[in-house]
User: Which sequence fits this backbone?
């Protein structure tokens, strides 16, 4: 999708230098992917301690070897 954005040139240059990516487009797309992954991980981290489990459940019992 074509988009016209006014970006901070210093941020783009620094991100390109750190990432080694050749173009602004590659740099911005990678930054967006990292942003999305990071926030997805935060949602998972927030779930820690909120999932209830059965103390009596024995996962080893469910294993079968043939």
Assistant:
């Amino acid at each position: 999708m074509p988009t016209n954005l006014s970006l901070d040139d210093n941020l783009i240059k620094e991100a390109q230098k750190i990432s080694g990516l050749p173009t602004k487009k590659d740099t911005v797309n990678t930054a967006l992917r990292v942003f999305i992954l990071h926030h997805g991980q935060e949602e998972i981290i927030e779930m820690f301690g909120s999932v209830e489990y059965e103390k009596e459940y024995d996962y080893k019992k469910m294993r079968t070897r043939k």
Notes: The chain has a mean pLDDT of 87. The longest helix spans residues 24-47. The two ends are 53 Å apart (CA to CA).
